[in-house]
Amino acid sequence: MKKKILFINFGGIGDEILFLPAIISVKKQFPQAHITLALEERSKGVGTLTSIIDEMLFANVKGKFKYIELFKLLHTIRQKKFDIVISSGSNKFISIFLFLTSIKTRIGYNTGKLSELLLTKAVTLNKKQYAAKMYHDLVRGITDFNTELPELEIERQKCEPNTILIHPGVSQMSIQKGMIKTIPAEVWAEITEKLADRGKKVIIAGGPDDKKVIETIERIVPCEKYKNMYEKTRNLKELAELISGAEKFICSDSAPLHIASALKVKTYVIFGPTDDKKLIPDNNRVIPVKAKNCTCSLRPCLWEKRHTTCKTLECLEITSDDVVDAVMNL
User: In terms of Cα–Cα distance, which of 134, 106, 111 is closest to 121?
Assistant: First the structure.
């Protein structure tokens, strides 16, 4: 009988991409299984990168009516009668929610005695590792497969020598919540022009969230110095295909980073308040670019020590030369 397996992972697009290896490994173990993913609607674009997700269920867990949303989701889950549920997240409420689904096999992180009582398998949460590995720990008891990076189903483009693709933006939601994770738009403009002046074929990409930074680049840098692909990619799959054709890729700590990591494209990432060791795989294809003279004792601080960035942003005092030198020399 075909198994019905539910995965629950609430977060941004980047989180969903990092969660994919866990889903992929389970699908390899149970190739006939029907896979459902419960997530926030803002992250549904992950479905363009893979065909293994048969169905998506949505809940806006960060909105004003999050408890109503969760109640509706619980009602839908109970109707669908899943065999297995696997949920990420370290909130103690999760084990109660999973218990209320009445699903026979319930897997989540160990958040204390209650999770040990209500879950059929409470997995040790190890946050001191690459996030994709942390999520994959959830499924090690039910699959023999170990998928280290997301396996994206795209049409890879032929790599064009000497090309550098730049995706400078971050999500507007993170900015609105006071989480500043990238350098000023003017610095991105300087990076674009300096790389072009060094003979690189520079391509600029971005979506609606990146409008302000792209407009700054357009205002400062002569248009003949770069190819403008802003809003030319209609979804994550098309962005992934664009990334696959670049020799090198530069971005902020955002979802495109995880796409490039999965595609094994040489990538340079601006890192300030977040922990690069948890967000990039341990290989030489992804290079973190960090402030050289930052003396902040809390760095990295975002998520572990605070939920908004500080006002000084010393950790993001990264110059255009810092980025250009890394790209040209590493």
Answer: 106
pLDDT score recorded for residue 64: 86
Pairwise CA distance, residues 94 & 118, whole Å: 10
| Fold category of 4-139 in CATH | Rossmann fold (3.40.50)
Q: How far apart, in Å, are the Cα atoms of 114 and each of 8, 90, 122?
A: 19, 12, 10
Q: Is 307 exposed, middle or buried (0-12, 13-18, 19+ CB in 10 A)?
A: exposed
Task: Tell me, rounded to whole angstroms, the distance of Cα 267 from its chain centroid.
Answer: 14
State whether residue 16 is helix, strand or coil. Answer: helix
This prediction has a pTM of 0.95
Say whether pLDDT at 312 is over 90. no
Indicate where the chain has its CATH 3.40.50.2000 domain(s).
4-139, 160-329
Q: How far is CA 169 from CA 8, 32, 187, in A?
A: 27, 39, 12
What's the mean pLDDT when you consider all of the chain?
95
Nearest alpha-carbon partner for 141 in 116, 107, 101? 107
Q: Residue 91: pLDDT band by 50, 70, 90 thresholds? A: very high
How many other CB atoms are there within 10 angstroms of residue 244's CB atom? 22
First to last CA, the chain: 52
Beta bridge partners of 230: 206
Look up the CATH architecture of domain 160-329. Answer: 3-Layer(aba) Sandwich (3.40)
DSSP 164-196: EEEE----HHHHHTT---S--HHHHHHHHHHHH
